[in-house]
Design a protein that fits this description.
Order of helices and strands: HHHHEHEHEHEEHEHEHEHEEHEE
Largest sheet: 6 strands, parallel
Helix content: 40-55%
Length: about 325
């Protein structure tokens, strides 16, 4: 197999220059970069990461656990993480646990088998022993979007309580008093915080929160549809819905359509999630805009800080959501 010395000889540069180009560890002129990359292609040279990891004791890879790899919410989070990884010349290994603890633990085993240098985790609701075993082995971990209950780690989350307050305050200002909230799993901090914000906003407006108006979904379209159908057919249907994800919101829209409910004339909708296509979607739906890209960037930055300084105190970063009216 060709070596880095072979590439340097073919490109008529030093091995340091080849390394700087391939690892993006130093600035190299466009002319020399082109010569190096041409030599790499001609020789079919590839970096031997296995050999390098044996020398450095690092794989230059991070593992990232997502609840649902098909949910568009996470695309911008991953993009933010990937940008930070590129700055550090790291690769990113993704796994999806589908809101299931057993699948999450299998993913954690995969990350350990691949000897990743650190992990970014959206944790599932339930037993946290798998997470604890990772932390106890001093593997750098940052929990993203959700706070663990029994395990101390670095965390980066969005202020979901403030986000729910923004949404409910807006709906109350439009005259709504019966505001339903379809959340995710009640075992997750993201859901508990948002419900607390929903309740706080209603009480501030002298409206008594009704427990029956809070429904626990599972982030799927089917759960949004089921809860919306039930609520809209109740003796006292809500005049507005706050929904914790766009996927569940699509189920709410389907239920409203089946019952011939016009949005927003008959029922108002808001989401704590956003997508670019909502800017051209009818009916117009206002949202609480979560800083998804910033969430990924902040989480990855925090993980690299943990990798560089494993004994530092745990850090908890909270990002602010923004109301986006349409």
């Amino acid at each position: 197999m060709p070596t880095i010395s072979d590439v340097a000889k073919r490109a008529r540069v030093s091995t340091y220059t080849v390394s700087a180009v391939l690892n993006r560890s130093a600035r190299v002129s466009p002319e020399l970069t082109d010569r190096v990359m041409k030599a790499v292609q001609e020789l079919d040279y590839t970096i031997n990461y296995i050999a390098r990891s044996l020398q450095t004791r690092k794989t230059e890879t991070l593992g990232m656990m997502l609840p649902d790899i098909g949910n568009p919410f996470y695309a911008k989070v991953v993009r933010g993480v990937d940008e930070v990884c590129a700055r550090h010349n790291y690769s990113l290994l993704l796994s999806s646990m589908n809101e299931n603890v057993a699948e999450q633990n299998r993913g954690l085993m995969l990350f350990r088998a691949k000897q990743v240098d650190g992990m970014l985790l959206f944790i599932a609701d339930g037993d946290e022993s798998g997470l604890k075993s990772i932390v106890d082995k001093n593997i750098p971990v940052v929990c993203v979007g959700r706070r663990p209950v029994t395990v101390d780690t670095d965390t980066v989350i969005v202020d979901n309580k403030a986000g729910a307050r923004l949404a409910v305050d807006h709906l109350v200002s439009k005259g709504h008093k019966r505001i339903a909230f379809i959340t995710g799993s009640s075992g997750l901090s993201v859901s508990r915080d948002a419900v607390a914000g929903w309740r706080q906003s209603l009480r501030h407006a002298s409206i008594t929160p009704q427990k029956e108006l809070v429904r626990e979904g599972d982030w799927t379209e089917a759960s949004g549809y089921k809860h919306a159908l039930d609520l809209l057919q109740s003796p006292e249907p809500p005049s507005a819905f706050l929904v914790a994800s766009l996927v569940m919101l699509s189920g709410v829209l389907r239920a409203a359509h089946e019952l011939n409910k016009q949005v927003p004339a008959d029922v108002a909708l808001m989401s704590t999630d956003d997508a670019d296509w909502l800017d051209v979607f009818e009916p117009r739906i206002s949202v609480v805009l979560q800083p998804r890209h910033e969430l990924g960037v902040a989480a990855a930055d925090l993980l690299f800080k943990r990798i560089a300084h494993p004994d530092r105190e745990f850090e908890h970063v909270v990002l602010k959501p923004v109301l986006k009216l349409r």
